[in-house]
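So, can you check these tokens?
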Amino acid sequence: MWTRRDMVRQAGTAAVLVTTAPWWLVRRAHAARQAKLVVWNPAALAPQVDKIMQEQCYAYAKQAGIKESEIDYSVLGGPQLLPKLVASLEAGNPPDITRLSTGFVHLYRSQGHLLDVTDLVEKMQQVPGGLFPVSLLGVMHKDRAYGIPQSVSPRPLVTRMDILDAAKVAPPKTWDELVEVCKQLQKPPRLTGYGMCLGLHSDADNELMNIIWSFGGKLVEADNKTVALHSKGTVAAVQFVADMYTKHKIIQKGAISWDNTGNNKAYQSRQVIFVVNATSIYAHLAESDKELYDVTGLLPLPAGPAGAIDSLGTTEWLLFKHNPYPEVAKGLADYWMAPENLRVTIEEGDGRWGPPYKGMYASDFWKRPVFQHWLGMLERGRQFSYAGVMNPAASEVIATNVVSRMLHRVLVEHWEAEKAVEEAQKKAAEIYARHQEGS
């Protein structure tokens, strides 16, 4: 029996994928087109997903009458993309379309860089079940959409179930239990307990924020302007992570310099028992290490004193105003997000992301045991900006790594946790105040 991926490859991909774009607009634009369609697609960290998405892009182009030579399609690593994008915006030549994680729509919309794509988002809302509300929070401003929801996913505790099962140890339900399980089962330097990203990158910001929540801290109050980072909960969380690294030694020393691929690589090379990450790790193993894939669990995050709180990540398509033929880029985004095409990407990509469409979770794929906790994590998950919502200020806090720099003060410069949190509070408050003045 053919898989959907087999069907995608058949007839140059075009046979199975759905024609969803406004073709008369696309063809009209193409007739006068003198510039390439420039696509910067961040690496999915699952090669089969990168391949499917590129195949879909060229299938779209074929149906739209765009020659392959008229497409500049790049798959860029996460650490490479943001500096390149910032430089391109400063130079006035960004890509026509790219995909970024939670918050960047609001940042670049506030700077005047993004196209209004309300028509596409309204179309997506007509898909049975509509879009998850959290997906809309990432793209809407004053009832207009400036980004296109691409996915919504929790960041589970990715777990070596074979190691736990062999030792007859239950999965940890609290962070304290995780520390004890790691100390019991790790065998350094070959095998370390917890692969936490500690570099100055968004994975570190999100992982630390999740632990801050579980200790009762938060970034901002519900008024979405009063920064609340400095609290007993945040100080306790920062100290807890510092202790995991320096006292309990359950985090690799090298994690201090990891980028967003570091925890992926550590788990995929069997160097750690646990990581907190999107399911790029799991999806990658489907192609690279079936044995490890079969013994990997995707579990809810452990609880702290304030409870168990899962972290949600969204990704969005961003279309930039400089594009002389916006219909072409809008058509590509529309094509990628057609439910029939997105299902190929997600299900044949082994769950690299969760779809933003509620109705897509009815398929047998999402009923597999490994995904048994997925919907629960979606329902109770939070975004980085809790108790506020994502806005340009929260986006800048992420983009400038305020939270991970706070941890670096403790781990690298040996500051007291309280002092590091006070500095981060001041930096975040300055960012929020500046955006309030400019709003």
